[in-house]
Structures are given as structure tokens and as C-alpha cells.
Amino acid sequence: MPVINRVAEFQADIAAWRHDFHANPELLYDVHRTAQTVAEKLKSFGVDEVVTGIGRTGVVGIIKGRSDTSGRTIGLRADMDALPITERTGKPYASKNTGKMHACGHDGHTAMLLGAARYLADTRNFDGSVAVIFQPAEEGGAGGKAMIDDGLMERFDISEVFGMHNMPGIPLGRFAIREGGIMAGTDEFVIEITGHGGHAAMPHLAVDPVIVSAHVITGLQTLVSRNVDPIRSAVLSVTKINAGTAHNVIPRTAKIAGTVRTLDEAVRNRMEEGIRRLAPQLAQAFGAEAAVSYHRGYPVTVNTPDQTAFSIAVAREIAGDDRVDPRVDPTMGGEDFAYMLQARPGSYIFLGNGKSSELHTDTYDFNDEAIPYGVSYWVRLAERALPVG
């Protein structure tokens, strides 16, 4: 287990930073305290350039190696924002902000990347530059896209970009990754069905949008079971149904909404086309109309082949060959690091959080024992990607 000894020595410092972030969670782009703390620490480490306000509240630190014959810069990214959840962990460092909680481990991600920045700024055992990227608004705010739109990659001349996320259920000290789609594209749809209202005792004089909604919901499920190649993956979940205000009135309209998750763009396109085609035609068969609104959310998070193979090699150096899963099953959750992987080649890896509550629950907590593994991965990745000599 070649965790870097010096990293292990200041694990307690990194854990203390993490606890501070955990106690003071902030949402979406409103991460001003967190971003300020990150910037101050980067400056105290002697990071060569610290830039704030990228993607509204993002922070980027540039660490120059002992030489620059390669002329390359690689990016390492952590997310800073929390979730709108009331915490129930009972930890001494539990959230002080009611209704806000680090329930996804972004406090740990930020602290680990700060730890890596401290080590890299001190040792500088690489040729080129490392950009440490601290991103706001991963939890539904597309902060990754905001940073890209602000010129992140071009401004700092980043050639490759890497991300990491803790994962409950993966044993402590282990990593998991896969080439290709590792996290899903996250789309949303709303279908508004318009019929003809009437008395509930006289349904023959109405066009009942509730009945139409039921058939549309059933029909939508065939898009996965009968329209998508069974070797590929898609999820369609209807999560909202709204219609009517009284027991004895057939309403005029009904609205259904839900999410679509896919792991490649071809399936994603097919699902959107299917919803737009099927809902209006089913509604028409009952004498009703259906208007479809479809919103594309985060893209599929796609790991590129060469960078994935490289990340596997680095993770094996830290954890051992048998403690890295190179073909982990993808997850249908979404991740806006996908935008960065659309802009540059790179990879996204899972770090074991051990036996903990699941992500996005009010009892979840990042495992401080994972810190040496995560920081060591970042350090070795930078040093191996930008070797001296």
C-alpha cells in the first residue's frame, strides 16, 4: 500500500479542513466562504497563481513544476457545493446551516485536492504545470459548464482533465473506473395533456386527461423495453402526476413529469425522439392533445481510453493491482464533470468510502480514512503525467 508517507503525515490537517467545510456547507454558486477559504489556503501553500471568479465562484490554482520542457498543463478537479438537506449525522462537525449539508462528500473532495496542492507546491517533482480546479454548483447548477464557458481550458491551456468522487459501498483503499460512459446523461421531461373537462358522473361527455395520462405513462415504458437495444442502458421514470382539484370533477388538463437517464448519445437521442412522438399520438387516440417539453441536463460522463488506462495504472500504484476495478458498472446518476470531459480528454474515478450511508442521504459522511488514498492518487497522477526528465 504505497500511500505517500508525507501525505499520511498531514492527514489530520486535511481532515480538519474537511470538517470546517462540512460544518459550513453552501449551495450551488453561493459558495463564497468555501471559495475564499480555498483561495487563501492555495496562496499560503505558495501556489504560483490563484484565480477566483471562474464560473462565477470557481477557483483555479496553477502550480508550476521544477521545469517546463513539456509545456503541458493537466487539470485536477474537485467540487465545492453541498445539498439542500437537513443533516442527521450527529457529528461534532455537523452542519451549522439549517437545511444545508455536505451529503455527497464534496467537502472531502475539496479538502483532498487542497492536500494535493500543498504537497505539489512544496515538492514540484513534475515537468509542466498542474491546474487545481475547485468548481461550484455541481449539484444541478452546471458549474462545470460555467467554468468551461468562462474559458477554463483555454485560459490555463489545460490539455487533459481528471476528476474523482467518493463512493459508498466500495471498500476503503480501493478505486473503480471504466472506459466510456461511467455516469449517465440526465434529462427531464414534462408532458401536459389537454382533454375536455366535465362532471365525474358523466365521463362520456368529457375527454378525461387522467385516463390519457395513465396510458401515456404505460406507453412511455415501452421506449426502454421495446425501442432501446437491450445490450444498452436507459432509464425512464415518471416521478410527478398532477391533475384535478375535486372528487367529482374531471379536469381539463393533466401534467406528468420525469427523468431519462442514458449512457450514450445515440440512446439519448432515441429516447427524446420517442417521447416526442409517442405522447402526442397516444393522446390523439383518445381525442386529447399532448405538449412535450424536453430538457437536456448533464451529458454522459465519458472516460477517454488513454486517460482511463493511465488512471488505472496510477490507482494500482497507490492501492495495488487487485484493489482497482477497471470495469466497474456505470451508474445512472449524473455528474457535470461531463462538460469538462467534452472539452478535453480525461477520466473520472471512484474512490472507496467504505461502509457508509448512501450519497444524498441525511446520515451520510465522508470517510476521513479515505484521505491518504485520494491525495496520493492526485499527487502520483500529476507526477506520472508530467515526469521530470
What is this entry, summarized?
The chain has about 400 residues and is an alpha/beta fold. The protein has helices at about 5-10, 10-25, 30-45, 105-125, 145-150, 150-155, 210-225, 265-285, 305-320, 335-345, 370-385, and strands spanning about 50-55, 60-65, 75-80, 130-135, 160-165, 175, 180-185, 185-195, 200, 235-245, 250, 255-260, 290-295, 300-305, 325, 345-350.
Structure description:
- The two termini are 26 Å apart.
- This protein has two domains: 5-183 and 301-385, Aminopeptidase (3-Layer(aba) Sandwich); 185-295, Alpha-Beta Plaits (2-Layer Sandwich), CATH 3.30.70.360.
- An eight-stranded mixed sheet has the order 1-2-4-3-5-16-6-15, sandwiched between helices. The protein has a four-stranded antiparallel sheet with strand order 10-12-8-13, covered by helices on one side.
- The longest helix has 21 residues, at 265-285.
- The model has no long low-confidence stretch (mean pLDDT 97).
- Helices cover 35% and strands 25% of the residues.
- The chain has helices at 5-9, 11-23, 32-44, 106-123, 143-149, 152-155, 209-227, 265-285, 305-319, 337-343, 371-385, and strands at 49-54, 58-64, 73-79, 129-135, 158-167, 175-176, 180-183, 185-194, 198-199, 234-243, 249-250, 253-262, 289-295, 301-303, 324-325, 346-352.
